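#struct-pred
JK: can someone run the complex with nicotinamide-adenine-dinucleotide? inputs below
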Amino acid sequence: MKAQPKASHFIDGDYVEDEAGSVIESLYPATGEVIARLHAATPAIVERAIAAAKRAQPEWAAMSPTARGRILKRAAEIMRTRNRELSELETLDTGKPIQETIVADPTSGADSFEFFGGVIAAGMNGQYIPLGGDFAYTKRVPLGVCVGIGAWNYPQQIACWKGAPALAAGNAMVFKPSENTPLGALKIAEILIEAGLPKGLYNVIQGDRTTGPLLVNHPDVAKVSLTGSVPTGRKVAAAAAGQLKHVTMELGGKSPLIVFDDADIDSAVGGAMLGNFYSTGQVCSNGTRVFVQRKVKDQFLSRLKERTERMIIGDPMNEATQVGPMVSFDQRQKVMSYIDKGKTEGATLVTGGGIPNNVSGEGYYVQPTVFADVTDEMTIAREEIFGPVMCVLDFDDEAEVIARANATEFGLSAGVFTADLTRGHRVVDQLEAGTLWINTYNLCPVEIPFGGSKQSGFGRENSLAALEHYSELKTVYVGMGKVEAPY
Ligand code: NAD
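RT: done, structure tokens with the ligand placed:
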């Protein structure tokens, strides 16, 4: 098989198999071919991974931050050296075009190890608090064993975005990738060992929605960071709350992207296309509700249609391909059923709306699709589709569009295109979202915090903010005189 790893899990520095676990078949989304056969973790595997992490963590936390950082930076270098191999694996795992994975997946994982490896020496410092004779100081301390649970759209990036800050802060991690994309995280674990990470600190176990709870409910786990859908987030947060564990929730969205009539229309069209069709639309922060001011609607739609119909759909391993398949058959079915709803609820189909005819019949392809005349009540404007389906809605004025943009339970991201500097800042100030863009969309470099508000989650990944979510404060009060007790 094309991408069969040595074994299903990576625990305590090595590959581990337990064939008693149910079979997980990894399919190449472009053809439906089985490329690896793995086993979900049994309870014994879960125990073994958590025990290894628990054993390894104290010594790692006791190392100097610089020494920890050096290992993480070495992992970043190895990832960059192996970028082609890792990108091809990511393409096999997800179906995303190699044109994307080569610039966006292992490279952003490497950025994460490089950033946290670099900032950690200063990032965990505490405070000295003078109290007039007495004083206090704070220490930032790791949490212990952290669990990461991943979605299938950016498997390697998610494995690194959770692993890098967790390890930098002195924790150990047990990571469970999505059952749809089990392969990339194993490579990250392997590379970390090669970079010199002591064994047991970054473990990967396979499994699905029945395995996740074994990790979340384990008493030795201090924190859970989930990337997934809102319904899963609710279940995981509720389970974690039962033992008062720390949580980070990176969940779904239905983000607004607002195009005012003074915007550079070609940039706005480009931003909307990147924010709807990149990774075949399987991006949580996508601006799937594109509000276009009425005066520029026709111009916007005609440029959008023309550019969308030029996109190259096909074999993800071909460097020219811009649109690959959906991750799975089920995901394609889900997206197609939303396209049907868009049609029956009265939206105008501008382009796409079907399965492309130039690709293998077994691949899970969907045409990049644009609906216009979408209204706020339509299902396609309210629910997360997680596919290449853009909804264009009309609006007249600023106050109206802000109210409509905010009328959703989600709050992950938002964007504004305008030439008016003050309007750009004024509008983002009123939009309810965790990550916002002015005159661009979906850029998430490691230096800036990323995460959602409202039902899209809480906690932040990337930037120094992530370190706060993988550590806690210890406060020490130091008495400098005699204790004066009234009794
Ligand atoms: P999902 O919620 O179905 O699964 C996510 C992960 O949770 C998987 O690994 C799954 O096995 C696990 N899981 C499921 N039930 C569980 C349970 N009860 N306990 C513990 N673990 C459980 O999501 P998905 O379909 O893999 O990914 C798509 C979703 O992820 C979309 O909603 C998307 O918006 C979201 N997403 C969010 C971000 C972000 O950073 N905010 C990034 C990528 C994807």
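RT: quick notes.
The chain has 16 helices and 22 strands.
The chain has two domains: 9-251, 256-438.
JK: thanks, will look after standup
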